[in-house]
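JOB MANIFEST
job_type = single_chain_structure
chain_count = 1
residues = 335
[input]
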Amino acid sequence: MNTTEKYSKFALCREMMDTPGIIEKFELKDAEQVMAAIKSAGKVFLTGEGSSRIFPAKNAIYTSLMAGYDVAIATDGGRQGAEYDLNGYVVFGASNSGSTKEVITLFDRLGKVGINERFGLTARVNTKLSEMAKQTFVLSCGWEQAVAATKSVAEQGLFYQELFAQLQGRSLKSKFPALAAAISDALTIEIEPEITKKIANAGTIYFAGRNDGVAEELTLKTNEITRKKSDYLEGTYAVHGIEEVMASDDVVVLINPFKAELAKIKETLVDGVGLSVVAVSDEDTIFPTIKVADVGELQNYVYLAAGWNILVEVGVNLGINLDKAERARKVGNEY
């Protein structure tokens, strides 16, 4: 992907390309109240639907566990969250529109049972969610025009990650310029035409990777951007039976693959099924690899951007209007 008219005519691509600037300038502001609440509670429940939850919440859990933070973070959608006893939790609801039905319904229920530490994260002001939350934070990226959310996903993720870092007495801000540059490179790196062709012609596109939100979010973006069938294979699921129903025209995209599993994946999927495997990694692998920069604990945003780049190339190759899905809505289930 680049800035030529071939890509820039789509709001989706322009919004993706906005992401480095948003990341570089990001600041966590006015968060004293929510940080005090989390310090007191010691546990947080992050909710939302689709892209507002998958990457932001799971990346927060993954990076916090990796860093050994002393806060318990859990996540699920609003409907499932309504079945939980969330007494004693700080609850964060992310909804770009501020009117996602599942989030609003959960917040309404929590208010009725006296769970008052409710906070919102939106891309709009004066929303239904802001009426129901103790405090609502508004993203700097603004409202996106494309159906598929992109720059908002990255900013939501960074909001949570910086929030939990500051709770530990540190900040990631000094690392944002390097992250922005790495994201820009990942968005514009040339994808080999043969890789694009294989993915565009795939029966099913599988994304395999850690339960950190990246591969799962790209699975959702595959549906919205390429209109092709996709599936998320968590962890090492790719070599634990799914090969029984895979076909030779399928493609598996490995995100930050476990080195110890590469040979087994080749044996099981390439040699056994006959399908194609592509990797996105900060180092070369035994498979065709889209190699990106290593930025340490902020690496997941770079993998996400590289995945966006792949999907845009596939969508353009298939002649799809990247901004307008046939059935998917910008606000999935509006209150």
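[summary]
The domain at 5-175 is CATH 3.40.50.10490 (Rossmann fold).
The longest helix spans residues 299-317.
exit_status = 0
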